[in-house]
Each structure stands twice: as structure tokens, then as C-alpha cells.
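Researcher: We're teaching a course module on how sequence relates to structure. For the next exercise, students receive a sequence and then see the predicted structure as C-alpha cells, so they can try to spot secondary structure elements on their own. Here is the exercise chain.
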Amino acid sequence: MNTPALPAVPKGPEPALPHPLPGAVGLSHLSAYDWEAADGVCGGSPHLHLVCTEAYVVTGGRGAVQTLSPDGYREIPLEPGSVAWFTPGTVHRMVQGGDLRITVLMQNSGLPEAGDAVFTFPSEVLADPERYAAVATLPPGTGAEAERAARGRRDLAVEGYLRLRETLVAGDAGPYAEFQRAAARLVRDRVPRWRELWRAGALAAAERTGAQLDALQAGEPSYLGGATAYETAPTRLGGFGMCGRRDEYNLPGVTLPYGGE
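Model: And here is the predicted structure for the students to work with:
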């Protein structure tokens, strides 16, 4: 597939993650959308990730996350202190129950921002990469135009999601499996870039641990001489994410256009 399936990500310099968060995870804060959808439910845009596990740590309010996976449909309640996570291929939809606020931890920092997410748009949109990209891409900023586009994107994702959920609940997993295949086709051209980010981030972090264990076993912990601390703060507040208004962080070593949860 030669046509870009998702908004283009500038190539830029080679990624470098010398000091990522533990495990090279990504971090953001979300306030779930309170927009009502066609089924009367308030919440975000259903979607899946292809290679990243995602976790919700609930810090306030009430709500739920609806999921579709080979083991069926679930609705997991969310309240302060709850933790829920879902593996690649799981369709998830954040549901607002009242001032729901969540800290999101994403595996493989940088990959979601580089496009590791596909909305549950109807099949005719998924089959047309240019049409998909046009609907999935939001105008810059956090104003009224961006809000209208984000809400329209959410509504289209819910339209496709409800079809998938209906057939899955009825015992027919075929449309859900086809959606997964369509999602994989859309992102296929991005895999080389994702591989670069993975090597520089999560893989490098794991390999550093191996080198540190080797040094400790050899009785030469000189790497501890480089010990230090880091801090960061949100670089954009209230952006329109997939699930809700999103506070974003530029973590050490990765500067990419916004495109995550």
C-alpha cells in the first residue's frame, strides 16, 4: 500500500530515548468527553492499537471502558483507584459517568504518537486510506473547529463500533476480525518507523537493564556514577484526544506530533 493510511509523521532525526520513563512508557492525562453519542452514551472514540498495551489509572470521577475482543464484549467499571488495561487488538471505548479523569500509560512511548491507533470507522471508510486520513486528522489547536472535527470523528467511530458490537454479541466474530485486518492494512507502511522507535525506546531500555545486570555481576557498577533525576510538565493542556481532553507530555528523547490517546 503506497498511500499513507494516517496523517503523515515527519521523518526528522533518528529517535533517541536516553532516559525514558520506566519501561519506556508513554504518559498522558485524560478527562473523558461528555458528548452524547447516537446510542445515548457519553464518551470517546472507539479504537484499537496494533502493538501497544494501554492502561487506565482512574484518578477521579466515574465511568467505564467498553471493550471488544475475541472473548466478547465487556464493560469494565471505572472509579478512583481502578486500573484497567487492554492488549493490542482490543477495541476500547471510554464512557463518561461523571467527571471521569484518568492517567493513561502507554506501552512503547512514541509509537501511539506515530499512528499506532485505528478508529472503528465503518468498513467503507477503512477501505479508503485517503478518506480515513481526512476524517481521522483534526485541525490544529483546541478551538471550536477542532472540537467539531473531534466530535464528528467520534460519532463516525461509534457508528462503526456499534455494528461490530452488535454482531459480536450475536456470536458472529467475523466483522470484528475483518476490522482488525483492515486496521493492520492501514498501518502497514508505518511499521519501519515504529521499529526505529521501538529499538530506540523500549528495546534499548530493556537492553540497558541487561548491561547493568552484567556490570553488577562483574562487580563493576560504574554506571551508577551517572545517576540523576528528571522532571517534566504538560506541554499542551486540553487537546482533543481519542477518548477525551488530553494533557500531553514531551518525554525525554521523543518529540512527535500529537496523535495519541
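Model: If you want an answer key for the exercise: The CA atoms of residues 65 and 76 lie 5 Å apart. DSSP finds five helices and nine strands in the chain.
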